[in-house]
Design brief:
In chain A, about 30% of the residues lie in helices and about 30% in strands. Chain A has about 300 residues and is α/β, with parallel strands linked by helices. Chain A has two domains: about 210 residues, 3-Layer(aba) Sandwich (Rossmann fold); about 70 residues, Alpha-Beta Plaits (2-Layer Sandwich), CATH 3.30.70. In chain A, the strands form three sheets. Chain A has a six-stranded mixed sheet with strand order 6-7-8-3-9-10, with helices on both faces. The longest helix of chain A has 14 residues. With about 140 residues, chain B is mainly alpha-helical. Chain B has five helices and two strands. The radius of gyration of chain B is 18 Å and the shape is globular. In chain B, helix 1 crosses helix 3 and helix 2 crosses helix 3. The chains are: A alpha/beta (about 300), B mainly alpha (about 140).
Amino acid sequence: MSDNGTIIRMDKVSKAFCGTRALDEVDLAVRSGRITGVLGANGAGKSTLLRTIIGLYLPDSGRVETFGCLARDLGPKELGRIGYVHQEGELLNWMTVGQLIRYVAAYYPNWNGDLERKYVADFDVNEKARVGSLSPGERQKVAILIAIGFEPELLILDEPASALDPIARARFLDLLLELIQTENRTILISSHILSDVEKVIDHAIIMDRGRIVRDCSFDDLREEYARVRLTALHGPLPAQLPFAGVLTCQRNDAEALLTLQNQSPESIEETARAIDCKAEIQPLPLEDIYRLVVGEK
Amino acid sequence: MRPMLLQIDHHSGQPIYRQVIDQIRRQVMAGRLREGEQLPSVRDLALQLRVNPMTISKAYSLLEMEGLLERRRGVGLFVAGLPKDKAGQTRTDMLEEALTKAVVTAVQLGIPEDKARDMLTRLYQKYDSGMRRQENE
């Protein structure tokens, strides 16, 4: 592990596929124990970012270090600390699920048999089924099991719940919540389904067209924006609304709906009082925050 | 240690650490969490509420900075003994926040001040009379 608990470090990393820049001079530092949500639309570069961290893709330029080792040189010692769930769930198709689990478990001296049995029961994993015959959702369940079974320090989940039905997805989130109770477990989880990740993450990375457009604490991101419903206390709403940080404003002569950035609730209320209005302040849904962040760049 | 009754609403959009802070503050101010009482560990509360442990540790740190909780090295976190004037101020602030909302609504509905006062008196009689009866006995 390198300085101050940083276990992943990227410096000016770029990667292109057939002329399309999947990563564009990306800088990133991930500290141990952090649960990071990697958010972005399809094609934003989320999967490329995650695969570059574990050396599955090599960057065209820039430097990637994971556990203090260049990602291209990661060996069994480092890889044995990393669990990875592939978006498409690449698995050995000719094995049965049970055989695959035993096969993977054999590589890891610290495989957790109790966790495995609990998972198999909770998620109705059919160990007799042939891997190649599984539905996408069932494949994903198996991929998750073999990535968490050895309790890796670093868990990289690339759209882990995309193929799961709503019930399996809820169970998976519960499982994640259990996994993050272990101290110093670092998780990177990419998703375009924002409601999936918002319960578990403490840090957010928002990607857009190969760039990281936001890298901050999830609470800070949440509190950066506010939706304000403004209603006049006496008479009509003034023509000028003297708020700072206004991103959007819809209004008629009696009320207005504003989206504000970087304004404290106290200052919003004070401004409202000064123009004889009532301000109802509400948090912005994550989907709206995401749209503002991506749209404003 | 009694189990702490906190409720997290994941759909409110309000950051979870704020929900935890608000609820613990209210419990301390209302005397439901008493001075010297120990709080569950970060790990236990995170597990109980099924949230990220970082969230709980952030909430605890902020409550500690506010002076509501105190850390005893190697033992844990406890409800601090608040100076009387500080406790009184916090209580007044909490009430003012609630009353401000009520007054703004009253103004907006065109309800005059004396009517609102009458209502406040009536509401005090309704909710506080049991308490006063006990005190008089």
